[in-house]
Specification:
Blueprint lengths: L5 H6 L2 H28 L3 H53 L3 E5 L3 E4 L1 H7 L3 H4 L10 H15 L6 E8 L5 E13 L2 E10 L1 H14 L1
Antiparallel strand pairs: 1-2, 1-5, 3-4, 4-5
Amino acid sequence: MKFPDSRFTKGRTIPLRISLIYALVGCLWIVFLSEILPLLIREPGTAVRWEVVTGWVFVGATAGMLYFLIRRDIDAIRKSGEALRESEEKFQMLLDNTASAIFIYRDKILHANPAMETLTGYDGRELLGMDFFTIVHPAFREEIRKRCEALSSGGGAPLRCEFKILRKGGEERWVDFTSSILFYGGALSGLGTLSDMTERKRAEEALRETRS
């Protein structure tokens, strides 16, 4: 979730380059008016000299204005990029320090926090690029897939449901799952949260058995 700084540091030289190119072209045009054109028409004349003077003034003023306007726009883009980077860094910190297992997914898992690793038994490298539905227990997989697809197509409020997952090694755990939509990496993605509720399910099952 990082933005390379180079795109903004390089951008600082763009206004100067554009202004210099414009000034160079303007100077060549003035040289043409003051030196080459008189040779062609063999009559320097006052009009040509006046065009030379006004040409220098116009080129200088326009080059300065170009530099100011382009630099202002690039500085605004750089500042907005820095603000976005800081926002994403805060978001990253929040994800990494929350107790709930949180992950971002599209076709595959794009980001998973440490709690997600603890819950599933997979480390971060294994989770990245993994199809989330391979973690879902086969008995729930098709239903959860359909509900997530409906969510991604804009067909309803944020999703919440309960199902089993398979940890690395095959252990089954009950989870409370919530999912919503957010923009990540310039595209719509799913933000999923998993809370382990296995002990609660066991307690509920034990209570039902004592009552029966």
